[in-house]
Amino acid sequence: MAKVFTVLRSEVSDYVLGGDDDGNTAQDNIAGYLDEMLDWIDLGADPGRWSFDSAIRYRASQGLTLSSLLHAYRLGAATIWDELARLADTDEIEKEALIAATPSIFAWMNTNSLRAHAVFREIDIRDARRNEQVRAALLDTILFNDSSIGAAFWDAVAALGLPRTGQLTVIAATGAEHTSIGDSPPDIETRISSHAAVQDAWFRLAASSQIGVVSLRRNRADALDSIADTICSDIPVLIGLSSPFTAITDCSKARAQAQIAMAASANSRPTTRYNRDVLPVLLASSPDAAAAVVATTLGPVLELPPDRAEPLLTTVHTWLRRGQSVSATAAELHCHRNTVNYRLRRFTELTGRPLTDNFWLAQVALALEAPRTQK
Questions:
Q1: Least packed by Cβ within 10 Å: which of 105, 120, 224, 321?
Q2: In the beta sheet, which residues pair with residue 266?
Q3: Looking at beta carbons, which pairs linking 12-17 to residues 24 or more positions away fall under 8 Å?
């Protein structure tokens, strides 16, 4: 045991660090490993003693790396085997017994190495989760508070490396399709962070959504719109963008904007920006009022079976977007002009108000946005 300790002190100095100044912790570990190896050889199989996993965790907490630990295993096993070989040369043990035990010695070393890999992987996963939790807590401090809370806000900004000023936007996203509990949300952070217009991004995940602060490069403040559109075309996700802002102290306000914009997004318009898509954002910010507008305006149409109601709603909505042009509406919907005119008349009959009434038309336009907001 003393020889193993001497070799390790010389070759793997960080292995013998920790414990008291005499390295007793390392010597205790070496003695335990030697006892386990002898049991392994004696029983001819794994004796089932896994107490050293806790020792590995303890040494890892002291800063011992996996590479140093594995190097120590190799040196320790080689030193033990060399000592046994020396004893065999002096007939203190039988050479045949040493030869028979050699495969078990190296099998023991291999098993310990695999155990060490597993423990360090467990530690890495645990630390990664803890780091992610800390990072999420720091980001929450910025997203859900303002600078008036003082040091906690600015400490979080510094710890995460967020700029105090810049071309900033908050983005909120959720899946466009129903997902089961435990399903990971779509990874939009990687796609956003890797874009040339993006300087950096900080995201945190929730059960069914994700929210992040995006810092864009100078003169690229509007690039996030096209990035979001591209993401939505490739991934079933709904995205809300805040108004652009320049001071990190406005992050909490922008976060609220992004979440409202996300609520306003729908499959027909998967990306919504707070300061651009004013009408759907207005409806999303007041869901009760939006529901009232829908019931009052579109109630008779929505009472129809979906396969009959949807063509009417889609036609009127397209007709409004196309400047009340029947020809343009027919072209977009790939149907005859007469079909468009029939659907417009049918909508008028059901609602009891003419589409030539501008005030009524404004209410219809508002109500047609609401069903695409209420998901």
A1: 321
A2: 269
A3: 12/68, 12/71, 12/72, 12/75, 14/63, 14/64, 14/65, 14/68, 15/59, 15/64, 15/68, 15/69, 15/71, 15/72, 17/62, 17/63, 17/64
pLDDT digits (tens, 9 = 90+) for 46-58: 545 556 677 777 7
Q: Which of 53-57, 266-270, 319-323 is predicted least confidently?
A: 53-57
Q: Are 160 and 139 in contact (CB under 8 A)?
A: yes
Please count the other Cβ atoms lying within 10 Å of the Cβ belonging to residue 182: 6
Please, which residues have CB within 8 angstroms of residue 89's CB and are 6 or more apart in sequence?
none
User: Quick check: 36 pLDDT over 50?
Assistant: yes
- In this predicted structure, the answer to whether residue 22 has a pLDDT above a threshold of 70 is no
275-292 confidence digits (pLDDT tens): 998 888 988 888 888 889
Q: List alpha helices for the chain, DSSP H.
A: 2-11, 13-16, 24-43, 52-61, 66-89, 95-143, 151-160, 189-193, 223-234, 251-264, 278-285, 287-302, 306-321, 326-333, 337-351, 358-373
